[in-house]
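FAQ: What does a ligand-bound record look like?

Like this one, built around magnesium ion:
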Amino acid sequence: MKRVLDRNRDMAARVREKLGVRNVIMINLISSPGAGKTSLLEKICEHLSGEMRIAVIEGDVATDRDARRIEKYQVPVVLINTDGGCHLDSNSIDMALREFDLDNLDVVFVENVGNLVCPAHFDLGETFKLAVVSTTEGDDKPIKYPMLFREAMAVVLNKTDLLIHTDFSHETFLADMHQVNPGIPVFELSCRTGDGLDEFLEWIKLSVSKKV
Ligand SMILES: Nc1nc2c(ncn2[C@@H]2O[C@H](COP(=O)(O)OP(=O)(O)O)[C@@H](O)[C@H]2O)c(=O)[nH]1
Ligand SMILES: [Mg+2]
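The answer part, i.e. the structure of the complex:
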């Protein structure tokens, strides 16, 4: 396992350098299955593809369904099927990036395999990780899966439209979140209704323009 992680880290460093010299940032979206990664990417492509050059790497255990959802927005998409694997690694990202014209991109979004554990351990060479959770998963995910939330630059809490149907406690969620990663920005939104989306999209625009 240590050798696998060491090899992954070395390739991640090369990926980071490859993107860095071209001023391209890479954002690695991680969540459990169904939290809304693809929905969030659809919103990002819909609202931001006119003002920044976006590409997407879709990681999926099987099928090209998410990649097809993204293709509709006319942005370059590369699909990585892990064939059962529970996370992406830097080697597959390096190969996927060869499919893009990196000199003509501002940002690459990676949809990792739906899983709160394994993807947090594998550096892909991303600029930062974005954790996505949803109100229907319960409020205890940050404290139960601390590594992801410690590593993430920001958190999206999706499906706020369903809040009234759940026992999700904001107070508990935010208290746990800030215990795990004090001060981390949390964007509460609904991909379904669009509530809260503007603030998140502004933050993405700022991150891309600052090349953070
Ligand atoms: N009610 C509601 N459903 C949502 C929202 N965002 C996504 N969904 C639904 O949740 C399901 C999983 O979303 P998806 O984007 O595929 O999640 P992923 O597995 O993380 O990529 C789909 O049926 C979406 O339509 C939301 O904000 N509110
Ligand atoms: Mg998806």
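Follow-up question: can I read anything off the structure? Yes, for example: The mean pLDDT is 97.
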